[in-house]
Amino acid sequence: MLPALWAVQDQFGYLPSAAVAAVAEELELVPSEVAAVSSFYSMYFSHKPGQHFVQVCRNVSCALRGADGILAHLGRVLGVEDGATTADGLFTLEGTVECLGGCGGAPMMQVDRYSYEDLTPDRCDNIIAALRAAPPVEPGRDGGPGGRS
Amino acid sequence: MADDLVLTRLVGRPGVTTLEGYERVGGYLGLRKAVTLTPEQIIDEVKSSGLRGRGGAGFPTGTKWSFLPRDVFPRYLCVNADESEPGCFKDRYLIDELPHQLLEGVLIAAFTLRVSHAFIYIRGEYRAQRELLDRCVAEAYEAGLAGRGILGTEWDCEVIVHGGAGAYICGEETALIDSLEGLRGQPRLKPPFPAIRGLYGSPTVVNNVETLSNLPFIVLEGGAAYAQRGTAASPGTRVFCVSGHVERPGNYEVPMGTTTFRDLLQKAGGVWKGRALKAMQPGGGSMQILGPQHLDVPLDFKAVADAGSSLGAGALVVMDQTTCLVDVAKRLVDFYHHESCGKCAPCREGTYFESQLMHRLEAGIASESELATLSDICANMDGRCFCPLGDTATWFVMSAYRMFPDEFLAHCGAGRCPVRAARPAAA
Ligand SMILES: Cc1cc2nc3c(=O)[nH]c(=O)nc-3n(C[C@H](O)[C@H](O)[C@H](O)COP(=O)(O)O)c2cc1C
Ligand code: SF4
Ligand code: FES
To answer: Could A40 and B335 be called an inter-chain contact, meaning their C-beta atoms sit closer than 8 Å?
Structure first.
């Protein structure tokens, strides 16, 4: 079931209810059974997020190295509150994400599928500027260069 | 000292993340040797290596393997790459740097256990690592190292990389199995243990990424060579993830038992900015706090247990003198509240109340009597939850309260965090 839901989300950027129904039909289940699974996992979205999904880790290792400040900085740069999407639909900011396994490069964030580590306010500005300048990316394709770039 | 390394000795060799590059430095010789041995011979080597599971519980790997009932097929191997413990990032590192070493370990275990399908369950957030493993698995199939008639033998084994979707609990072995089956990932009642009834009701072994990554070395060099590292009680090496207030956070492979917390801290450059150590958390977010008085405790299963904590999944989170332990505890409690799977009441409700209370405490608006309530909530959770997640949700906060009672007390009714208020502005 999880691979099927990933295939849908990779194509649409979230799980539209019609697609959930199609997955249910394919797996010979009722849609509520599929919804019960998809809602359990935090990475499946029932609503379409912005084109770039910015998640700042605020668990301990990141917090110890200034994650709160990074989140506040990104909020100012993007002009949105934690959890909101920018008016142009380009960025959704989320600052309640749990440890992403990048504690060695704390503070870190994940944008779309890739991690950016050792963040400073300047580095955040550069990353956001690069994403703004990049041509629109279709969901389901690589969303950025990734790594400790 | 380089001779002492097992897991990371090949890190950084040119092209080592490709099959060709890995084979150039001796990759897959362990598997090639394994297929000439009997399963019993391999299990004996693993037992004599003294290898214990690196996923958190530290269960002896050879013993776990011998629980599989004889002659019951099909059997499955689940590779636990769900790594979501706060402070842990070693499995990601081992995948990023040496994906084929893991794959070779998976195939050795699969051969030994005669499993027909090996599933690598990798957390959804490790998307880049999932793509890397997919590529490596494809290379292995192409080279006849996976799939049908592996290395010209009669042995068939499929390897499937399966992405999770964001749920810490799916690292628990039975929840992982439920998730693989396409369900909500919630723990199952044990017994029966997965070795008897696991994935799709069949005998199943669940092993951690680091555990399996040791196998190529153990098969090639022998269990005794592995056991030469470390001490008799804690043989071998381990990769520790050091993070927090240190100069050089990162993964460090060290022999167990002969290395102390102080040595590990030194490898990571010591406490940053020349500050003093206030506390450290070994094992990952679940485990109890230790203080500067524990710096000379060796990284040995028993010694750390005697000190009141655990090596858990092999992390070390370092906190300097400016750290507010109430704030750290609040973040960990929030984590458990968020990740509670909701199956049992003590954890589902307990983590909610714990989290509410910790937020009030951190903000300085809780009263002194609420500290007793906190202890009470935790006492009603620890040992009463369906799976260890609920129990461990109380360990850090309670151990921090015991070690720093005055700091918890000072928050009560203070109207703000007294530690942060006392911190120099630049900290
Ligand atoms: C809440 C919880 C989370 C866990 N998360 C992980 C994990 O992310 N990775 C892992 O290898 N083991 C994890 N474990 C331990 C597994 O249940 C299991 O013991 C382990 O994968 C066995 O592998 P090993 O014998 O090689 O250590 C977790 C256990 C619990 C209770
Ligand atoms: S202890 Fe928590 S995570 Fe474990 S079964 Fe109960 S609710 Fe689920
Ligand atoms: S605490 Fe932020 S990545 Fe682990």
So the answer is: no
